[in-house]
Write a structure and sequence with these properties.
The protein is an alpha+beta fold and about 220 residues long. It has 6 helices and 12 strands. It has a 5-stranded antiparallel beta sheet with strand order 8-3-4-5-9. β11, α6 and β12 form a beta-alpha-beta unit.
């Protein structure tokens, strides 16, 4: 199969590689869509720890084509996405319910092969079934959207809230939409790019600003 491999810092190549072997508790997923995250750029530049050679890509969706013998609750043909962060479940952080701080965390697309390939081995515990008719591109947005939703929850955004979103990239624009859905009445997005300010207003921002202008506070 084809895969985009990060061979070393600064070295990325399209290669023919073997199909992944799936374990008893894993799904073989044929990738339909995979996003490019800012983290992938950091991996390429050596700004984020990983274990090359590795196939990047942690924002993905695809169809289940094979199932390990211990897998239950999934069927061949299911459209799925995945949580890329695999916690060990044994360390003190995991026992405290802080699985995102797992001492032995292994991430798909960083420490093990990810979605910049035709196929991916996905642990059952990381997999989530998507609606069959969902656009695969939308399925690939589940991971970044989940990060934004967590932020909105932590911020306690509720009906009547006033919100400022700093940055108009994918995460910022998703957060604008979630803030609107949460009932915020004032949503200000700050970004230098005029095209992203216009898009933010289309997506629900009540005001946008260029942070390089001298009257930002006003």
């Amino acid at each position: 199969m084809k895969a985009v491999r990060l061979e070393a810092v600064g070295g990325i190549t399209l290669r023919d590689v073997d199909m992944p072997d799936i374990g008893a508790d894993e799904l073989l997923v044929r990738i339909e869509a995979c996003g490019v995250c800012g983290t992938d750029r950091h991996l390429f530049h050596g700004e984020f720890p990983c274990t090359p050679p590795v196939t990047p890509g942690h924002e993905f969706s695809g169809l289940v084509e094979a199932i390990g013998k211990s897998v239950s609750g999934f069927a061949i043909g299911d459209r799925v996405t995945g949580d890329p962060n695999i916690a060990c479940g044994r360390c003190a952080r995991c026992h405290a319910g802080q699985v995102n701080l797992c001492s032995n965390l292994r991430a798909i697309g960083i420490h093990r092969d990810g979605g910049f390939a035709e196929y991916l081995a996905l642990p059952q515990k990381q997999a989530f079934v998507l609606p069959a008719g969902l656009d695969p591109m939308h399925g690939a947005f589940c991971e970044p959207l989940g990060c934004c939703l967590h932020g909105v929850d932590l911020a306690g955004i509720k009906p009547g809230s006033s919100v400022v979103v700093l940055g108009g990239g994918v995460i910022g624009l998703l957060t604008v939409q979630l803030a609107r859905l949460a009932g915020a009445t004032t949503i200000i997005l700050s970004t230098r790019q005029a095209s992203r300010r216009a898009l933010a207003e289309d997506l629900g921002a009540t005001m946008t600003i260029d942070p390089t202008t001298p009257d930002v506070i006003d």
